[in-house]
Structure formats: structure tokens, C-alpha cells
Amino acid sequence: MLYRLRNLTRNSILGAAIDVADTSLKRRTGLLKHTELRPGEGLWIVPCESVHTFFMKFALDLVYLDRKHVVRKAVSNVAPWRASICLSAHSIVELPAGTIAATCTAKGDQLALEKIG
Q1: Which domains does the chain have, with CATH numbers?
Q2: In the chain, pLDDT over 70 holds for what percent of residues?
């Protein structure tokens, strides 16, 4: 199942093909097998309040969401071999580096995840 991720506050699209990691296996694997994320792609990890980029091959933008999909924290350009946490988050969306800046996404923005296909 893929999702479209829209920022309702800024009237922008963060991703047009967001995959979901909603099982233990999918959350553990995450993006480790990927060599890149293309513009419009991403991974929504549910539930999740922290991630690491150990063994990753590229940088990511991280958007932490609460249960109502309000941005609790936005972290840009997280390089490989780093860790990031937001204890008030319910889920995290991993996006290509530069997405947060390009969409002006910030803490407090209301996002919408819409099922596609």
C-alpha cells in the first residue's frame, strides 16, 4: 500500500509514493536495502519514535508525527551513522534529503497521508 503525503498547512506534497512499515519485520529492515530515495518516495514507520541511519548509503530527512499527523519534529539531512529521536512522536516519515526545505515543512504543520492504489 502506498500513500501520498501532503502538508495541509503549507499546501505542498512531501511524497507521492510513500511506503508503509507497519510490521516488526518492515520496521527493522526500513530503508537498509535501498541505495537511494528518489524525489517523491519515502517510508512511513508506524509506530516509531526513533530511528538510526547506521549502514545507510545516503542522507535522509525525518518528519516525526503524532497520532493526528501533526509534525512534532522535522530533522533535515540526517547523514549515515546517526540516530534521531522524538519521544512525543507516534510515527516517522523518512524522505529524501532536501524534502523538508523544499516544502517548508515545520513543527506544528498538519499533514495528511492518503492511500493511493
Answers
A1: 2-116 (2.60.120.1140)
A2: 100
